[in-house]
Design a protein that fits this description.
The complex is a heterodimer. Chain A is globular, with a radius of gyration of 21 Å. Chain A contains eight helices and no strands. By secondary structure, chain A is mainly alpha-helical. In chain A, helix 3 crosses helix 6. Chain B is mainly alpha-helical. Helices cover 76% and strands 0% of the residues of chain B. Classes of the chains: A mainly alpha, B mainly alpha. Chains A and B meet through helix 3, helix 4 and helix 8 of A and helix 1 of B. Chain B: Keywords: Cell inner membrane, Cell membrane, Cytochrome c-type biogenesis, Membrane, Transmembrane, Transmembrane helix, Transport. Chain B: It holds the Pfam family CcmD. Chain B: InterPro entries: Haem_export_protD_CcmD. Chain B: Required for the export of heme to the periplasm for the biogenesis of c-type cytochromes. Chain B: It is a single-pass membrane protein.
């Protein structure tokens, strides 16, 4: 298949950590810079151009943080789930580096989503928290992220940790469609989707455009953090290898 | 409490969490780069010195 002819060598090229380091080193400042510029434009539009909502008033400004954070929470989980497949099925050398770098970023965005949602809920619904399907499944998402981070710390040997974490990640992936479709499957206090719908977004463009700009800015920021995290993780593994080598050398000298 | 409080608090929390992520990434990277440089300066990486 012609697709394989192009994709297979590309994946093999990127599998080389040295090649990844040089490519990501070039990309990182551009992605980070673009994220900062878009974040500036997005925040300007949110604060000075986008109108207040006819029901929510100015509180709608919280949505421009809450919604992108929620998307990134799911996005980073999907990155982790595909990296988990890469670790278990293809044993791609960068897969568990990617998974390990993604986990704290995904957890942080899930936290932002929950906190901002709660701060929106109090003035709008009259409560910080409701045990409805969307809110509860998102809390479960945070707990899965924290469980994954804890499991990594519990297992010393990186390859064994990667396999155990990958299995947990794939089991936890069942929560992703539950979060997404919870508002359709159950009668929730949380409103249903208003951007990614089959019949198109139901938000006016004066709010949709800043929301999408903020979402792209958050995504680029997330990708920049992910690239930076992967680079640091590769260095950490080099440090680990060299530390073991040094210990072996000192042992040999002592013997 | 006014709505302004909830809006301001949301933006402050988000800014703090994101600043934390960036700071953590920068500090962690610096620690690894320094440790690696230290190990390499002692010649640990060179195969000729092994065994």
């Amino acid at each position: 298949m012609p697709l394989d002819r192009y994709i297979q060598p590309m994946i093999r090229e990127l599998a080389n950590p040295t090649r990844f380091m040089s490519l990501s080193g070039t990309l990182l400042p551009w992605v980070g810079g673009l994220a900062a510029v878009l974040m500036g434009i997005g925040l300007y539009m949110v604060w000075f151009a986008a109108p207040a909502d006819y029901q929510q008033g100015e509180t709608v400004k919280i949505m421009y943080l809450h919604v992108p954070a929620a998307w990134l929470s799911l996005f980073f989980y999907m990155i982790m789930a595909s990296s988990a497949l890469g670790t278990l099925v293809w044993r791609h050398p960068l897969a568990d580096v990617s998974q390990k770098a993604a986990a704290p970023i995904g957890a942080a965005f899930t936290l932002i989503c929950l906190v901002t949602g709660s701060l929106w809920g109090k003035p709008m619904w009259g409560t910080y928290w409701q045990w409805d399907a969307r809110l509860t499944s998102m809390l479960v998402m945070l707990l899965i992220y924290l469980g994954i981070l804890a499991l990594w710390r519990a297992i010393e040997e990186p390859n064994r940790a990667a396999r155990a974490v990958s299995i947990l990640t794939l089991v936890g992936a069942v929560n992703v469609p539950i979060v997404k479709f919870s508002v359709d499957w159950w009668n929730t206090l949380h409103q249903p989707a208003s951007v990614f719908r089959i019949d198109g977004p139901t938000i006016h463009s004066s709010m949709l455009v800043p929301l999408l700009i903020m979402a792209v800015a958050f995504s680029l920021l997330g990708i920049a953090l992910h690239l930076a995290g992967m680079r640091t993780e590769i260095l950490r593994r080099r440090v680990r290898t060299l530390t073991i080598l040094e210990a072996e050398r000192l042992d040999a000298q002592a013997a | 409490m006014s709505h302004t409080f909830f809006i301001a608090f949301s933006y402050i929390v988000t800014a703090l969490v994101i600043a934390g992520l960036i700071l953590r990434a920068a500090i962690d990277h610096r620690i690894q780069v320094r440790t690696l440089a230290d190990l390499e300066s002692r010649g640990v990486g060179r195969r000729s010195r092994r065994g």
